[in-house]
Amino acid sequence: MKYAVREEDKMKIITVCGSLRFEKEMMEIAEKMELLGNCVITPIYPTNSDKDAYTKEQVEVLDQMHKEKIKIADTIIVINVNHYIGNSTRSEIEFAQTLNKEIIYYTDIVNSMKHSFENKRKVVIAGSASLQKEVNHWSKYFEDKNYEILDYPKEIDESKFMELYPNVHTEFLENITKTDMVFVMNEDKNGVVGYIGYEAYAELLFGLAQKLIYNKEIELVVLKMPSRNVGCYEEISLWLKLGWIRLYEEEK
Asked: Which residues of the chain have pLDDT under 50?
């Protein structure tokens, strides 16, 4: 299902239809569609909360203007939360059908996005929290590859370190039990090639325990071979020979 036309940079004009009670969902889907490169037209929300303050003629004008918005649209998106469609929205759908407009339902978009999200591979990025530039680089890399990033190295406020560290570390280990891949971002640090600190090594070892003891299908990937002066060099070399872990190769 396509929600944006990208051929020759052509955008779609999309008019959003639905009950005004679904304002939150309307604004969320309008934003998503515009971020995909579409021009989105939304309903006018009454400035007066008292519906009786509007005359019958004013209500009819608003209804007619929304149908004009449907006329100029390529597509309408019907915000049918929990499959609810009121009489007014139903008449807008019927009007769009007479004009042969493309009709997309909110529930279909949500289900499609949910399916896509559920099918994403999950990754935990391990490494030094002091290398935030590199953390951002690899986070973007995996996002662009359509991975769901469960966790990554975070800098902790030193003034609250003892208070925050236990929860941060526990959550990180819990996410390793849920992930499809642990990626050890062992970038060079302080002149050490392929630096792996004790904490990153412990996290990799924890992932290996999930694989060997609990038979979890988890991929353990190290960015590069660490230099011999890295404390866990011998273990990394052995695990590579055993096929328990692998070195990173860029995905095409």
From this structure: 1-2, 4-8, 252
- The reply to whether the predicted model has a pTM over 0.70 is no
Query: What single letter denotes the amino acid at residue 17?
Result: C
What per-residue confidence (pLDDT) applies to 8?
43
Distance of CA 30 to the CA centre of its chain: 17
pLDDT of residue 252: 41
| Structure confidence at residue 150 (pLDDT) | 94
By the 8 A CB rule, do 195 and 226 touch? yes
Give the DSSP letter string of the chain.
--SS--GGGPPPEEEEEE-GGGHHHHHHHHHHHHHTT-EEE-PPPPSSS-GGGS-HHHHHHHHHHHHHHHHT-SEEEEE-GGG---HHHHHHHHHHHHTT-EEEEHHHHHHHHHHHHHTS-EEEEES-TT-HHHHHHHHHHHHHTT-EEEE------GGGHHHHHHHHHHHHHHHHTT-SEEEE----BTTBTT---HHHHHHHHHHHHHHHTS----EEEESSPPPTTSTTHHHHHHHHHHTSSEE-----
Q: What is the pLDDT of residue 53?
A: 80
